[in-house]
From TrEMBL:
Sequence similarity: Belongs to the TAPT1 family.
Pfam families xrefs: DUF747
Subcellular location: Membrane
Lineage: Eukaryota, Metazoa, Ecdysozoa, Nematoda, Chromadorea
Membrane topology field: Multi-pass membrane protein
Name used for this protein in its record: ABC transmembrane type-1 domain-containing protein
UniProt keyword Membrane, yes or no: yes
Transmembrane annotation, as ranges: 49-72, 125-146, 247-266
Organism: Onchocerca flexuosa
GO CC annotations on file: ciliary basal body; endoplasmic reticulum membrane
GO biological process, one term: positive regulation of cilium assembly
Length: 357
């Protein structure tokens, strides 16, 4: 497959890589529905065995096609790194800046910005995995010489840095042109935190990692199969000294997964607790009145998410006009100062009758 891809022209490979990138996003979107249908038919007794096998067959075909697609992406990226002129790599990196043109001049609501943020997170992880495959294959070809890795390191860093810079510029101009406050990303963080906490519930519908991956638009099964295929081709597991490596690697990855899950859950609980504290303070009447006074003097802004009834960025009604976390945090210092300087009047019923004449 590598030599067939390498024999193509630069422009043809550039177009081919863009087609693979678009197809990967489309496959990821309906792949989640395919696995949900398989999960539902295998867990519900009302579903017949015929439909379960039909859904299983469709899931296998989808996984096979998506795995080949991801493998072609990794192969094309490997060809770009190994080209002598590296013109293909430069063209592929310039494609990130073309993404700015299609994003910054469009009208974005808060829900659309949240979807784009999740897509960018998923895209960064996907590119990092593809670069890992490229490094492993190239290091195997040169017998794991460290000098060759140092030669590849500038190109690897350039690809990652270009991706990060483009994402920063894209989000900066989108928030500027659509008049969205930067504190809106705190709302997105709380949404992800709620997903993590709710997925750990005993009554959750699916696995705890499925809800977060669905939010991100990430389908891990094809990517995992591609990694397993590349690793089995890279290392010779018939050697006795190498046979213990898969077991040790599995134990290390399992430990890393447990530790990572504990850290993520702790961070999510911290964000949820902070949100609950903000919610309690926002429900006080003095904060509500002063927020209304400040909002009445400010210019109209982007659609907001209710802090009083916060659950999901994508499921807020237009009639819900509460306060967001970003609203409260942007005026938090002013509210605290005004609360300290403005004395609370003493209730009339607590005054002694002796002072009345």
């Amino acid at each position: 497959m590598y030599h067939q891809v390498r024999g193509q022209g630069v422009i043809k490979l550039y177009i081919f890589y863009n087609m693979l990138e678009v197809a990967d996003k489309l496959f990821s979107s309906f792949g989640q529905d395919i696995f949900d249908a398989l999960f539902w038919s295998s867990t519900h007794s009302s579903s017949s065995f015929v439909w379960m096998f039909v859904h299983l067959f469709i899931a296998i075909i989808y996984t096979w096609l998506h795995t080949i697609l991801v493998l072609l992406q990794a192969t094309t990226l490997n060809v770009a790194f190994n080209s002598h002129t590296q013109a293909l790599l430069a063209i592929m990196m310039s494609n990130n800046f073309v993404e700015l043109k299609g994003s910054v001049f469009k009208k974005f609501a808060k829900a659309n910005l949240f979807q784009m943020s999740c897509s960018d997170v998923r895209e960064r992880f996907h590119i990092f995995t593809l670069l890992t495959v490229v490094v492993v294959r190239n290091m195997m070809a040169v017998n794991w010489k460290f000098e060759h890795f140092m030669e590849m390191l500038p190109d690897l860093a350039l690809v990652i840095i270009a991706e990060i810079i483009v994402d920063w510029l894209k989000h900066a101009f989108i928030t500027k042109f659509n008049e969205i406050a930067a504190e809106v990303y705190q709302d997105f963080t709380i949404t992800i935190a709620f997903d993590v906490v709710r997925s750990r519930d005993e009554k959750a519908f699916s696995d705890y990692s499925d809800q977060v991956s669905r939010r991100m638009g990430f389908t891990p099964i094809p990517l995992t199969i591609m990694l397993i295929r590349v690793i089995t081709q890279t290392f010779d597991f018939t050697i006795t000294s190498v046979q213990a490596i898969p077991g040790i690697t599995w134990m290390l990855l399992l430990s890393l997964k447990i530790i990572n899950g504990m850290v993520v859950l702790g961070k999510a609980c911290g964000h949820v607790k902070r949100y609950r504290d903000l919610q309690e303070k926002t429900e006080c009447e003095i904060f509500r009145k002063r927020m209304l006074m400040m909002k009445s003097k400010s210019a109209p802004n982007s659609p907001r998410i209710s802090l009083i009834d916060f659950s999901d960025v994508l499921h807020q009604t237009a009639a819900n006009k509460g306060f967001t976390v970003s609203d409260l945090m942007s005026h938090w210092d002013e509210l605290n100062c005004s609360l300290e300087t403005t004395p609370t009047p003493e209730p009339r019923r607590t005054k002694s009758l002796a002072i009345f004449k």
